[in-house]
Amino acid sequence: MDLTWIRWLLDSYAFWLKHELIDRTGTIEGQSERLYVSPFVVASHTNAEDPILNYGNRQALALWEMTWEEFTATPSRLTAEPLNQTERARMLNRAATQGFITDYQGIRISRTGRRFLVKQATVWNVLDDHGTTQGQAACFSQWIPLPQVEP
What we know:
Blueprint (H helix, E strand, L loop, with lengths): L2 H15 L10 H9 L4 E6 L6 E4 L1 H7 L3 H4 L13 H14 L1 E10 L5 E13 L5 E8 L1 E4 L6
């Protein structure tokens, strides 16, 4: 796990939202562990042209039904069904322009095809030490399982 990325993710959340995502006391290793075991979902990707997920905490891995290796090899667009990818892209662009949003809602899909509705997600730009956007992150604690779509 990239501790620099974790620090950027946490620092950026505090910068945009004006409060901490988790308790920031202690070492970055301790903060990383607290983030990983948090009861809410946290996921992120870099700012590549077709971003690959580069972080998911334990709750994200469980929700998307993936191992760390699977999650961090997944293009982030594939967390949404093809039908919902346009809306997802619109949301990411809005967050990129504003720096963050706190009102995202959308349908996502797990590795095994289970669908769920994410509610009240916060999405923010992850900034490096120089203020340059390196990617985006999201967190949420509300999701609703949805019925399977028949082929």
